[in-house]
Amino acid sequence: MKLDNLTNRMFPSQSLEESLKQFFGYDSFRPGQAKIIEEALQNRDLLVIMPTGGGKSLCFQLPALLKPGLTVVVSPLIALMQDQVDTLLDNGIGATFLNSSLKSEEVRSRERDIIQGKIKLLYVAPERLLNDKFTPFLDLIVQKIGISAFAIDEAHCVSEWGHDFRPEYRKLKQLRQRYPQVSMLGLTATATKRVREDIVQQLGLRQPGIHITSFNRPNLYYDVQLKERRSYNKLLKYVRRQKGSGIVYCLSRRSVDEIAFRLQNDGIEALPYHAGMADETRALNQNRFIRDDVQVMVATIAFGMGINKPDVRFVIHYDLPRNLEGYYQESGRAGRDGEAAECTLFFSLSDLKKIEYLIEQKTAPQEQKIARQQLRQVVDYAEGTECRRTIVLRYFGERFAGNCGQCDNCRDPKPIEDWTIEAQKFLSCVARCNERFGITHIIDVLRGSKRSKIEKNGHHLLSTYGIGKDRSVAEWKMLGRSLIHQGLLDETSDGFSVLKLNKKSWEILRKQRNVEIAITQKAPTKVLGEYNQNAVEIELLFDRLRKLRKQLADSNQIAPYVIFADSSLKLMAQLKPKTIAEFAKISGVTDYKISQYGDRFVSEIRSFCQEQAPPNPLPTQSNMITLQLHQQGLSTREIAEMRGLKESTIYSHLSELIEMRQPVDINQFVLPVKQDLIIQAIKKIGDYALTPIKEHLGDNYSYNEIKLVRAWYRRKNQ
Question: Are 87 and 312 in contact (CB under 8 A)?
C-alpha cells in the first residue's frame, strides 16, 4: 500500500517492505514486526511485548501511515513525544504532539492541522487524553477524519505489578468504552506474565493478538561489580575508558548531584538529572545529552524512560535498582542501535538496606509485599553465579540455554562443583516443609535455627532440621538461587516467594539427576580485538560523518541520531558510497533524507577518500618489464617462465600496473560478467582482503581474477 502525500488515499500496489523502505529507509523488518503490522492493518487489538531497541514504534507508526484517519499515541513523557515526533518529521511524516509545554496558540495551530488531515500520528499524555476539556476534540476528530487506532506506549504502567505503575493509565479503559469501534494496541518492552494479563484486563483489549518477541539483547554485555568504599574511583576509571555516551543511574537525588559534580571535576563532561531540579534545567540537561554536547548523564530512574537515543554505549547502575524489571528496561537504554554496549551494576549490601528502609515507608501491606519480592529478585541477579542472561530471561518467562559469552559469569566462569548431596538435602527440606515456605526459612531449618517460627511450625522435629550446619547461610543461598536459575526448583511470584518442587526436583531426589553449581567469583577480563588498516580507515571516516551529522543536527535544532543512526553511518564508512544512487542503498536512507542530506554526506565521503588515497607511485623496473612483455602479446604463464617468476607474481605486477593507471586491459584476463559480480562482492565486503571476497564468490573465481578487478575498482574510486 502507498499513501499519496500522507493523506487518507491508499494504493494497494505497494508491499509492506516497499512501504518500509519508502517511509523509514529500511530494506527488511526486524523479527516479529511484519506479523504485528499485518494484524494492526486488520484493526485487531494487540499486545506487543518487544525489548528496547526491537522496533516497537514501527509496529504502530507504519500502520498509521497505511490506514485512513489519525492514530493517537498515548505517551507518558514529554521527552518521549518530542523525540519520536522529531524523528518522524525528519522522515517527512506528518506527526505532532500536544502537551503542557506548548502555548495555547501552538495548540490551536496543531489542532487545525489534525482536523485538516495533515497529521497521521498524534502523541498525547494520558492525563490530557482523558481530560473532560479534550474529549470534545477527540469526538470532532472521529467525526471529521476518524481515529484509526489508539496506541498505548509503555503499557506496563497500567499494572501495579509493573515497575513503573501510574494510576492515570488505569483510566485508559475509558477509551474502549467511549470509542468501542477503534482498535487498541498496548506496547511495552518489559512485562511478566502477570503484568501482561493485567494490561489486557485494564485496557479492555478484546481477544488481542499477543506478540512476545525474545527479550534477549545479544549486543549487550552484562556484569556486576562489588561496590566498595572507594567505588567512585572504579566508576571514574570505567567512564574514562569509554568512548561514547553513557548513563549513570543513582538511587537518590543527592547521590546524582555528588557523582555528577565529581565527574565534572575529574574532566568528564557530565550533567545531573532528577526530579528535584527546575523543569527548565532538567530539560536543558537532557537536551544537551541527546544532542551529544555532553558524554554522561547522571540520573535517577526518572531519566530515560522516553529517550530514544540509540547510541548510548554504556549504562551503569551505581546504586542497586529496586526491581529486576526496571533494571532490565533502564540497562536497555544502551545499544538500541544494535551495536555493542555495556551494562554494569555496582552491588553492595548497604544499598540493599537503603531500599529496605524505603519499602518500610510504604503504608499499604500489599505494596510492601510486592516491593520486597522484587528486591529479592534483584539480589538474586546480583549475587547469581549463572549466566546473567539466563537469570534475566527466566524472570520474563523465557528460557535461555548455554553460555551467552556476553556477561561476566560466562566470560570468566567460576569453578564448578558437584553439589548433588547438598541439593538433595535442600529439596528434601522443601518437601518436608510442604512447599509452603521461602528460601530463608528452608535455610534456617537446615542450619538448625532456634527461631520461634520454626518451633511454631514443628519444623524442629523434621529429619532435615540441622543437617546443613556444615554450610554457611551464604552457601545455602547460593545453592538455592542456582537451583531456581537452572530450572531445578520453582519459586512463586504472587508477592510471597514460596519454593515449589518440579519434575527435575524429584529427579534429583531420586538420584536420577546430578547438580553442579558455580561456587566462586573472579574479576572479569575482557579480550580486545585488534584493528587492521581497513578498520582504522572505517573508524576515521565514521568519526568524520559523526561530526558532519552533529553540525547538521545543531543547525536544525534536533538530536544527531534523528538524522541518521550510528548503524547507517557505519555502513557509509564501510561501503563509502560516492554517488547518490549508491548512497540511496544504505539502510536507513529514505528519499526524503536524500533530498535533505544526501549531497553533504556523499561530498564528505568523496573528500575523505581523496585525502586517504596515496599519490600514484611510478612503476618499478620489474613492473615495467612485465608491462613490456604483456604489450608484446605474451601470456602470464609465458612471462613468468621467461622471467623465472611465479605466475601469481606476474598477476601482482599487472594489478599494480592497473592501479597506477598503466595501459593494461583487464578484459583480456577477466570476463565482463565476472568483473561485475566481483565488484558487487567488493562493495558488500570491502576491498581490504582477498580471502573474504573469494569465500563469498566461491570456487568459480580465482584469486588472480579478484586481484585484477580489485585493482581496477580501486583505480576507478581514487
Answer: no
